[in-house]
Amino acid sequence: MAGMYQVAIVAHSWVRWLVLIAGLVALARAISGMQGRRPWTSADDRGTFLFAIGLDVQTLLGLLIYASLATSTRRVIEHVAGMAVALMLAHVGRVRIRRSPAGDGRHRLATIFIGLSLLVILFSIPWAAPLFRA
Ligand code: HEM
Hints:
The chain is mainly α and 134 residues long. It has helices at 2-35, 42-68, 74-99, 105-124.
């Protein structure tokens, strides 16, 4: 269905920015929390949650797009594989944070996992595609 593909690709293009912004906000909170030895708060948790849920939405949209493609090129496979790693890092990070003692050590875990996830995302985004799709 061409209509569904169009909607999914436009949404996937825009949600990218929400994911990047949510990730940068969560990472900034984590780094400043680590440096200031600030206790981990529910606002910090919300930050990593928004980043992870954004990635989940991108995955769903991405799989819809993938299912409507006739062929998968090497570029597409690398994109999907990279994003699967980023998704895993974000979710494993949240689990590790939840299981670690409540304290400023959680900011260190968030810095590592969100930071690595964001890095993989930045390298896996096809920047040749339109930045703002209409
Ligand atoms: C496992 C998760 C994901 C899957 C399965 C997926 C799948 C896809 C597929 C199949 C395409 C079309 C490729 C093409 O036609 O060349 C695509 C394009 C794209 N993806 Fe993903 N993706 C995922 C995650 C993400 C994430 C996390 C982001 C950014 C935060 C992202 C950003 C983009 C962008 C910007 C495009 C280009 C869209 C356009 O043509 O305007 N993707 N994705």
